[in-house]
Specification:
The chain is α/β, with parallel strands linked by helices. Helix content is 37%, strand content 25%. It folds into two domains: 102 residues, Rossmann fold, CATH 3.40.50; 71 residues, Rossmann fold, CATH 3.40.50. It binds glycinamide ribonucleotide (GAR). Glycinamide ribonucleotide binds next to helix 1, strand 5 and helix 6.
């Protein structure tokens, strides 16, 4: 069976592109149906064009209420008939209604070792700034299912990197971005082959 995938992004879109190229290169049993982008000027939209993937803009600020925003997201997702949703640098809150309808079928990557350095407002560069300011010796990346709280759902995979004494937020971001791509692609493979089982907060890999 081939999975229908949707992607949610807000920015550059390199994560989105890497996942789509992994599907294509490895001929994984999945198809990228839709990119939903929260910003019309995001480069992710250009990448979708180049990759031949339909994109839609759904931005929280275009709606009066959280409910209307959730309804628009759900409408786009239902129309795509997606089975699984990958967040790829998506900076808006995923509404509860969407989480409920796609329970354990929304995946996110966060550029730190959760539960540290996550939560509201913790994304991209801000995460690496906070890690360095705190004096942490390790950071890394976490792939997890999305639940009703920011950066909180069951953890699927994590990989650590050392924080070097001379690291800047930029150098740390760069090192983490390199491992993020492989880590996320690994989870994509497992999902495509239906090798993940979720039970409460525990995620197990099936043989
Ligand atoms: C990635 O580093 C991802 O981990 C991070 O945004 C970047 C997106 O890069 N996501 C978060 O911080 C989510 N809390 P991209 O736009 O080039 O794919």
């Amino acid at each position: 069976m081939s999975l229908r995938l949707a992607f949610l992004a807000s920015g550059n879109g390199s994560t989105f592109q890497h996942l789509v190229e992994t599907i294509q290169l490895e001929k994984l049993p999945a198809h990228a149906e839709l990119l939903i982008c929260s910003r019309p000027d995001a480069f992710a939209v250009e990448r979708a064009k180049t990759l031949g993937i339909r994109s839609e803009i759904v931005s929280r600020k275009d709606f009066d209420s959280l409910e209307d925003h959730a309804a628009a997201l759900l409408h786009a997702l239902r129309e795509s008939r997606c089975d699984v949703i990958f967040l790829a640098g998506y900076l808006e809150f995923v509404p509860t209604q969407v989480v409920e309808e796609f329970r354990d079928r929304i995946v996110n990557i966060h550029p730190a070792l959760l539960p540290a350095f996550g939560g509201k407002g913790m994304y991209g560069h801000r995460v690496h700034e906070a890690v360095i300011a705190y004096g942490a010796r390790v950071s890394g990346a976490t792939v997890h299912f999305v639940d009703e709280h920011y950066d909180h759902g069951p953890i699927i995979a994590q990989q650590a990197v050392a924080v070097r004494p001379d690291d800047t937020p930029d150098s740390l971001a760069q090192r983490i971005q390199t491992i993020e791509k492989n880590l996320y692609a690994g989870v994509l493979r497992l999902i495509c082959k239906e090798k993940l089982k979720v039970s409460g907060r525990k995620v197990t890999f099936l043989p």
